[in-house]
Design a protein that fits this description.
Strand order of the largest sheet: 1-2-3-4-8-7-6-5
Number of strands: 13
Bound molecules: biotin
Number of helices: 5
Distance between the termini: 39 Å
Structural class: alpha+beta
Helix content: 10-25%
Largest sheet: 8 strands, mixed
Length: 263
């Protein structure tokens, strides 16, 4: 059996060093060589704090899945203030996807789309995944996992042909530090807009990112519905069109999972 030599892991923060604390685009950013999950570290922090790690030993994905987090990817969590009683609170997970897309477009990625609620795709391959946790009532932790020069497909067979990496899309790929700053800048702008009540402006920009209407199956916590995904309405509700032209509207919390139906 032959073994393929891998390049040494590239750490931006030296293992063993204390976390680096810097002020970046209005956020207090803590950077670590490795943590279990940046979302879990961020759970104990305050609004406008952020955490980045070069690697995660127990990265968390949606639906309690493992998130492969080898060095070279961007593993970032940002603590965002949420006005629970504001109309925009339920739109927050969508708005984080918008901020990531804005930062990726600024980095030169042209062909991006979002899969509801906030997977960032290039074609049908996943470039970034987002996990929004609510550990405290007035705060949300927005966890962002973005493949840059890490090797998810080499680490897990089930990811074969499923992922995209920024390093394969733009040359040269921006540094993790520049990407972090760009995402945090966009996220601050979008969250300030949301908390100022500019929900419909944000949602109409978001609606340009879903790509063509696609056939989907919704898992409504055990009840399954099929139809065509047609973006979100002014209240952030998912629009599902039926074959006869009518539409049903679903609050984000009603939809456990959206699966795109491919033929
Ligand atoms: C998904 O399943 O698509 C969501 C993946 C979210 C991964 C990111 S990486 C940074 C943050 N820390 C975690 O443990 N998960 C999120």
């Amino acid at each position: 059996m032959s073994t393929v030599a891998r390049p040494a892991l590239q750490f931006d923060v030296s293992p063993g060093d204390p976390p680096r604390l810097t002020l970046v685009e209005g956020w207090w950013l803590r950077e670590f060589a490795e943590v279990d999950s940046t979302n879990l570290v961020a759970a104990g922090l305050s609004a406008w704090d952020a955490v980045r790690a070069d690697a995660q030993s127990a990265g968390r994905g949606r639906f309690q899945r493992e998130w492969i987090s080898d060095a070279g990817g961007l593993w970032l969590s940002a603590v965002v203030p949420v006005k629970s009683d504001s109309p925009g609170a339920s739109a927050l997970p969508l708005v984080v996807g918008l901020a990531v897309c804005d930062a990726l477009r600024a980095a030169g990625v042209a062909e991006l789309r979002l899969r509801w609620p906030n997977d960032v795709l290039v074609g049908d391959r996943k470039l970034a995944g987002l996990l929004i946790d609510r550990f405290k009532p007035e705060l949300a932790v927005a966890g962002i996992g973005l493949n840059v020069s890490n090797e998810p497909e080499a680490r897990h067979d089930h990811l074969k042909n499923q992922t995209a990496r920024l390093a394969d899309l733009v040359s040269p790929a921006p540094s993790l530090r520049d990407l972090t700053a760009s995402i945090l800048r966009q996220l601050r702008l979008e969250v300030d807009g949301l908390n100022a009540g500019n929900v419909s402006g944000l949602l109409s920009r978001l609606n340009q990112l879903w790509g063509r209407p696609r056939p989907v199956e919704l898992d409504l916590d055990g009840e399954f519905r099929t139809g065509t995904f047609n973006g979100v309405d002014d209240g952030g509700r998912l629009i599902l069109s039926g074959p006869a032209g009518g539409a049903d509207f679903f609050e984000p919390w009603q939809v456990r999972h959206l699966r795109e139906i491919t033929n």
